[in-house]
C-alpha cells in the first residue's frame, strides 16, 4: 500500500518544484521528503521526477499520479481535523481585479490540504485582507511584499483579428482599433502613448471580463503576458516600437506571524508555476 505521507510530500514537491520547498511547507526536513519520494519511486519501479540544479521536472507518470491522488490526499489529510471538530482558521484574501485567480487556485488547494482548518474568505479590498495577490504598485501601506514575477504588457486580440498574424504590432497599427478599458489599473491602457481612442469600446470591472470581451471580438486590450496562458481564443503580441510597460506581481501581506507564514507558503507554490 502506498503511504499517505509520501503522497503528501510528492504532491507538494510536484506543486513547488523542489524537495526543499516541499519540506518547508510540510514542516519536515528535506532528507525526510527525499527519502519518502524515493520509497514511492521504488514501489512504482520508476522515477517520478528528473532532478536538476534548477529543480524538479515531473515525468508523465508523476503528472498522472498527481491528478489521480491530489483530491484524495486533501480529503484524507483533513480527516482527523473533521473528526475532532478542530476549530477553523479564517484567512482573508484579496485578488486584485487585474489578477487571475486561476493562477493561485492550485496553491490555495495545496495550502488547504496541508492545513485543513483553513477557511478562505475573499475581501473586496487589499487593506482588509491578510494576504493580497496584486501588483506591487497597488499594495497597501505598511504591509510586506513577496515578489513573484515581472510581467511585460502585451496587446491581446481575438485569434481571427486581421492583425493576429503579425509577430509584433506598432503604434500605427493601433490607431484605428477599439480598446477595452481597464479603469481599475492606472496607465495599464497606455493612453499616454497618444494613439489610442479616447472613447473605449467597453469598460470592465476585472480582467476575466476583459479577456472574454477580447475573445468575442469587441476590441483589443493591453494585458499582462501571463493572461494568455490556456487561452486558445486569444493572441497576445508585443509592441515593437514603444514600451508597453511591465508590472511586478506578488503577495502583499500583513506583518503578523500568521499572515507572514501563510504568504511564504503560498509563494513557495505559486512562484514555480509563474516561471513555467
Automatic annotation (TrEMBL):
Organism placement in taxonomy: Bacteria, Pseudomonadati, Pseudomonadota, Alphaproteobacteria, Rhodobacterales
Record keywords: DNA-binding, Transcription, Transcription regulation
Family statement: Belongs to the LysR transcriptional regulatory family.
Cellular-component GO terms for this entry: protein-DNA complex
Origin: domain of life: Bacteria
Natural source organism: Pseudooceanicola nitratireducens
Domain HTH lysR-type: start-end pairs: 2-59
Pfam families assigned to the protein according to its UniProt record, in alphabetical order: HTH_1, LysR_substrate
Listed InterPro entries: LysR_HTH_N, LysR_subst-bd, WH-like_DNA-bd_sf, WH_DNA-bd_sf
Molecular function terms, GO-annotated: DNA binding; DNA-binding transcription factor activity
Protein name: DNA-binding transcriptional regulator, LysR family
